[in-house]
Amino acid sequence: SYELTQPPSVSVSPGQTASITCNGDKLGNKYVCWYQQKPGQSPLLVMYQDDQRPSGIPDRFSGSNSGNTATLTISGTQAMDEADYYCQAWDSNTASYIFGSGTKVSVL
Amino acid sequence: QVQLQESGPGLVKPSETLSLTCAVSGYSISSGYYWGWIRQPPGKGLEWIGSIYHTGRTYYNPSLKSRVTIYLDTSNNHFSLNLTSVTAADTALYYCAREDGVAAAGNGYDSWGQGTLVTVSS
User: Fold this and answer.
1) Using the 8-state DSSP alphabet, how is residue B32 labeled?
2) What is the mean pLDDT of residues A33-52?
């Protein structure tokens, strides 16, 4: 079955850049979405179609997807960006969505 | 602005059927979009359960497919989830969500309910 692999955690200093990776076989051939989830809250879509930001998402969030790796980048990271982040992609072979295991971003 | 609200029993006995409803306001579910269920065991990550299109076409997680049914109730503008033969492993926070467009188009779930916790225990 198709799998998406994310690092369990990423630490970043305030104002610096955080990069969250999502790896999967030929992932670049699929569209990837990213969700932010803060404690006690529902997930929030922060990126769709690899690099498109929904309305209301700050432009410090950006995305890319090529080869086997999709990346969500947070530039000028703020304390409010501390959260769990999940990638998601559609597996056409099984006609099902796959979520990555999630990455906890800590702003230290 | 669309709003989604999950409802259903918070406690289900092992081997029984988990039934949840997602009430949608601000949009008619018969008009379009995909409507999905996602769950999250306590302290763990997200797991996709399945989706239903406004036409009734469904897609299910292969690992749950034999136990899952998702269906629309257009007269009440809600959609529902049935999960049969539950075990403790099905204990989770269950979310309903809306997706704009077909899954392969990569639009993602742009609106989510607040989630409802279901515990499987005798």
Assistant:
1) S
2) 97
Flag if B95 and A42 touch (Cβ within 8 Å). yes
Asked whether the beta carbons of residue B45 and residue A86 sit closer than 8 angstroms, the reply is yes
Q: Which amino acid is at B97?
A: A
pLDDT digits (tens, 9 = 90+) for B61-86: 999 999 999 999 999 999 999 999 99
Q: Closest residue of B to A50, CA-based?
A: B106
Chain B positions in Cβ-Cβ contact with residue A96 (cut-off 8 Å): 48, 59-62
Pairwise CA distance, residues B23 & B8, whole Å? 11
The answer for residues whose C-beta is within 8 angstroms of residue B52's C-beta and 6 or more apart is B34, B35, B36, B58, B59, B70, B71, B72, B79
Cα–Cα distance measured from residue A105 to residue A66, given in angstroms and rounded to the nearest whole number: 22
Is there a contact between A64 and A71 (Cβ–Cβ < 8 Å)?
Answer: yes
**Interface residue B112 vs chain A (CB under 8 A):** yes
Residue B104 has, within 13 A of its CA and on its CB side, a CA count of 7
Strand-pairing partners, residue A103, are: A85
pLDDT digits (tens, 9 = 90+) for A45-82: 999 999 999 999 999 999 999 999 999 999 999 999 99
Cβ <8 Å between A43 and B47: no
Which pLDDT belongs to residue A103? 98
Closest-approach residue (CA) in chain A for B103: A90
